Amino acid sequence: TQLLEQSPQFLSIQEGENLTVYCNSSSVFSSLQWYRQEPGEGPVLLVTVVTGGEVKKLKRLTFQFGDARKDSSLHITAAQPGDTGLYLCAAYLIQGAQKLVFGQGTRLTINP
Amino acid sequence: EAGVAQSPRYKIIEKRQSVAFWCNPISGHATLYWYQQILGQGPKLLIQFQNNGVVDDSQLPKDRFSAERLKGVDSTLKIQPAKLEDSAVYLCASSPRLAYTGELFFGEGSRLTVL
Q1: Looking at beta carbons, which residues of chain A come within 8 Å of B106?
Q2: Which of B27, B30, B26, B22 is nearest to B6 (CA)?
Q3: pLDDT at A78
């Protein structure tokens, strides 16, 4: 059973379209991160959200942390081929060891 | 600043053989992680070190996997004997300290194929 459920697992859209990727859990997290991973490379951090309801923007990417700190979304406006990659949400559990757990990822393909 | 270094990048072995992966974290980073990423899945934490002490190894298959971080710097992950289901990318990551908001810096990974 995945602690963090991402949806959709695969998404293929045309350049210029908008999209939203979701990360859900029944657990409460102290913080949540989004990483992007390209083939043959390790994940690279995009953003960290800490406060419930927090919204952060990174150019055309908008990240939101749910009010209850159990879920998050990533919205991309006017997607470009350079956005292609594996998007991973990850979260620190609120109790116990400070370990970062990952979702299974959303594989995004932007077609020119 | 140099990133996280891992070697080898690729390794192909037969089942029941052994393999070792090496990781050199970013200089000064106290926390080091080994993750296993099976094709099509997200990374799964195997073991986490703070300096040279183990913080969490609850998902490390200890009958076949072992890891050490001598002197609190570089680390080695060993698999002996390997099984077919160990085929995966082994990612090493480091962070400056334990923190509930800390960024992890990943290496490029070591891809293992077990035949």
Answers
A1: 41-44
A2: B22
A3: 97
For chains A and B, count residue pairs whose Cβ atoms are closer than 8 Å: 61
pLDDT in tens, B7-37: 999 999 999 999 999 999 999 999 999 999 9
Is B55 within 8 Å of B98 (Cβ atoms)?
yes
Q: Provide long-range contacts, Cβ within 8 A and 24+ apart, for A47-52.
A: A48/B101, A48/B103, A50/B101
Q: Three-class SS of residue B73?
A: coil
Chain A positions contacting chain B at CB under 8 Å are: 4, 6, 30-31, 33, 40-45, 48, 50, 88, 90, 92, 97-105
Q: Which residue from B4, B41, B100 is facing A31, i.e. has the nearest CB?
A: B100
Distance CA B76, CA B47 (A): 11
Residue from the list A42, A48, A103 with its beta carbon closest to the beta carbon of B42: A103
Q: Cβ contact (<8 Å) for B101 and A88?
A: no
Alpha helices by DSSP H, listed for chain B, are: none
Q: What is the mean pLDDT of residues B85-97?
A: 94
Token representation of residue A107: 């594989």
Task: Classify B27 as helix, strand or coil.
Answer: coil
Of all residues in chain A, the percent with pLDDT exceeding 70 is 96
Per the prediction, chain B carries an average pLDDT of: 94
By CB atoms closer than 10 A (0-12, 13-18, 19+), residue B85 is exposed
